[in-house]
Design brief:
The chain is of the alpha/beta class. The chain folds into two domains: 175 residues, Rossmann fold (3-Layer(aba) Sandwich), CATH 3.40.50; 176 residues, Rossmann fold (3-Layer(aba) Sandwich), CATH 3.40.50. 39% of the residues lie in helices and 11% in strands. The longest helix is centred in the first third of the chain and has 24 residues. The model has no long low-confidence stretch (mean pLDDT 95).
Length: 380
């Protein structure tokens, strides 16, 4: 299970791909499968082996200039190749590699000869990024792909679509605790994501101000987890965050509107603190201005029984039942209006839908079907 070099698994705070990997790996091992994880060395997920190129994650580099980033991804994949070779020599070859590393994962693993293991790559990204690669890559029947939503795959290049063996929506851990009743929730709504232009955080600030709803922002800026880390990075003239586009955007479009009361940034959250935020917020907001492919945080919100307010873009219409588990908007005015209708959504319905659609068992069932198809196509 190739998670990449960016964040530990599970991540301490932000980390959509890493949370998916943790959820899927845990469910697969519970069913008796052996899973070796390729991830940073500070990963704590119980697994059957850990392959690492780095002692800790390299998330702060992600989003930096190409020369600073590409070598990190390739160094990680070299560690994966060494593990594949070592296991083959020891007579314990891997049945399949499931990579979640954008471009570099399938490219490096696809360069192995026909004796290499079959590969399934999950497409977690906007496929217009790195479009030249996706339009030309040929997995030769040994490297195949899984989408995380039908809308994502529909936007893929024809060559890539031919190599997609199926779509498996994302999943999150779910429990049977009843959701917090509406009347017992805090007077706030939540944005749980990277704080950047594509996530529409500035839209959330304006809409919440217009609707008179307090807003909490929880997530990193430019790979930095909180205000202290951001200030320290900006004080270092050589820190890559100084040229990170998300940092500049945050300083111009978000920071001036944070007053500590009606709008607060609390940094990345994880564990019990994240769970408490999700369960006690009135809603989680996704004012995205891009075609979101997967939406892990949407599933997390609904699993907590918390309504979602989102722009109707990308996969969001397939995750949110408009008027039942949240509200979908077409513009900022509609988004603002939805914030005034939060009490019309029943938390019990949100939680029940999440258990039915986004439970780990549902995702594992889907991937086991795709693993079998990849093995069949590779003649294994």
């Amino acid at each position: 299970m190739d998670a990449g070099p960016w964040l530990p698994v599970p991540p301490p705070g932000y980390g959509g791909v890493e949370n998916v990997v943790a959820t899927l790996t845990t469910e697969l091992r519970a069913r008796g499968h052996t899973v070796v994880l390729a991830a940073p060395g500070d990963s704590t997920l119980p697994v059957d082996g850990l392959v690492s190129a780095f002692p800790d994650g390299r998330f702060e580099l992600l989003g930096g200039p190409y020369p600073q980033v590409v070598g990190t991804a390739h160094a990680h994949e070299q560690a994966v190749l060494r593990a594949l070779a070592d296991h083959a020599v020891a007579g314990r070859p891997f049945d399949l590699v499931h990579t979640h590393v954008e471009v570099v994962g399938p490219a490096v693993l696809g360069a192995l000869d026909s004796a290499g293991p079959p590969v399934l790559g999950t497409l977690h990204w906007d496929l217009h990024r790195n479009a030249d690669f996706w339009a030309t890559f040929d997995g030769r029947g040994r490297v195949c792909f899984a989408g995380v939503s039908a809308s994502q795959v529909a936007r893929a290049a024809p060559r890539l679509r031919e190599q997609v063996v199926g779509v498996v929506p994302l999943a999150v851990p779910v429990d049977r605790r009843p959701p917090v009743p509406r009347g017992q929730r805090a007077d706030r709504v939540l944005v749980l994501s990277r704080l950047c232009a594509s996530k529409g955080v500035d839209t959330a600030l304006r809409a919440c101000r217009a609707a008179g709803v307090p807003l909490v922002l929880a997530g990193p800026v430019g790979g930095l987890p909180d205000r202290a880390a951001l200030d320290a990075a900006l004080a270092d003239p050589d820190h890559p965050a100084r040229s990170h586009p998300d940092v500049a955007w945050f300083a111009e479009h978000v920071a001036p509107h944070l007053d500590g009361r009606s709008a607060r940034w609390i940094g990345s959250v994880g564990g019990a603190a994240k769970d408490e935020l999700l369960r006690t917020s009135r809603a989680v907001l996704f004012p995205i201005r891009w075609e979101e492919p997967g939406g892990t945080a949407v599933c997390e919100a609904l699993a907590a029984g918390t309504p979602v307010v989102a722009m109707a873009r990308g996969c969001l219409p397939s995750l949110v039942d408009d008027g039942r588990t949240g509200w979908l908007a077409g513009d900022e005015a509609g988004f603002t209006a939805a914030l005034r209708r939060l009490d019309a959504i029943d938390p019990e319905v949100c939680a029940a839908e999440a258990r039915r659609r986004f439970a780990p068992a549902v995702m594992a069932d889907g991937y086991l079907r795709l693993y079998a198809e990849v093995l069949r196509r590779a003649g294994r």
